[in-house]
Amino acid sequence: MKIIIHGGFFSESSQSDEVKKQKQDSLKNIIKKSYEFLMSHDSMETVIYAVKLLEDDPLFNAGIGSQIQRDGKIRLSASLMDSEKNKFSGVINVEDIKNPILLAQYLRDEEDNVLSGEGAISYAKNKGFDYYSSETEERRNDYINNLKSSGVGTVGCVALDKNGNLAVATSTGGKGFELPGRVSDSATIAGNYVNKNCGVSCTGVGEDIVSGAVAAKIVTRVTDGFSIKDAFSKTFDELKEIDGFAGAIGIDRLGQMYCQESHPKVVYASFDGEELIVFE
Ligand code: ASP
């Protein structure tokens, strides 16, 4: 069993050592809890569990503490995929709910697996999701300062369970101060993708991640015989051609975990039951 999580990027220039320590501690806590959960649940249940914990932590730009868009509103996007059913489900730009990853989970059982905007909002209401404002004082201050200092965020998880099934989940508040209607990579196969061979979750500038088809490309390369390291490396090399800003975490079917970034540094942690690695 293996698990790897991320909490977006850490920016040395705009975030303090104290925030770094808080993020490291939070990731350690969440990855340990999630690994314990994985011991008695499958990979899909576990990525939902881990991403919900990350959404509930205001330190990260997903769920509570999400960034605010140009019109002053918060819109959340999240997606989920597993290798067993090979099914992708997600929500794009949903408002006023606490955990978009739980809405993505509901959508797995529908005929229409990805919903956006108004449709996603009324679907959430029909499913009984309570009104919830994800805004924090810190994000409102970032918004007032045009979010120039907060850096990028997003959270994600890839897990491999004891039956060899992989699953991925990714959730975001977006890049901050974007135009209403802008679509993040996090609920697309560029930002969140898995098959029987590999699973990948991304963070960074959504436009670059979509242009580089990052998660889908890495997974396809591993499927076609690349090692996970080479698949990440070639995909990130290609991203240089567009000066792309991205980070990604992944696990292959053999349980090899990997993280790569185009710029320092992705906030991530991995755990295999023995060795706990946390970004420094
Ligand atoms: N990828 C997210 C987006 O562009 C932002 C992030 O990862 O920080 O919406």
Describe this structure in words.
The protein is an alpha+beta fold and 280 residues long. It contains eight helices and twelve strands. It has helices at 17-40, 43-56, 100-107, 117-126, 137-144, 206-211, 214-223, 228-240, and strands at residues 2-9, 76-82, 88-94, 114-116, 155-160, 166-172, 192-194, 198-204, 246-252, 257-261, 266-271, 276-278. α1 runs antiparallel to α2 and α7 packs antiparallel against α8. The chain is globular and about 45 Å long. The site of aspartic acid has 16 residues, from β8 and α6.
Short description:
This protein has a single domain (2-278), classed as (Glycosyl)asparaginase (Glutamine Phosphoribosylpyrophosphate, subunit 1, domain 1, 4-Layer Sandwich), CATH 3.60.20.30. Helix content is 33%, strand content 25%. The protein has helices at residues 17-40, 43-56, 100-107, 117-126, 137-144, 206-211, 214-223, 228-240, and strands spanning 2-9, 76-82, 88-94, 114-116, 155-160, 166-172, 192-194, 198-204, 246-252, 257-261, 266-271, 276-278.
Helix-and-strand structural type? alpha+beta
Shape: globular
Q: Strand order within the widest sheet?
A: 4-3-2-6-5-1-11-12
CATH architecture: 4-Layer Sandwich
Order of helices and strands: EHHEEHEHHEEEEHHHEEEE
The small-molecule ligands in this entry are: aspartic acid
Structure annotation, total helices: 8
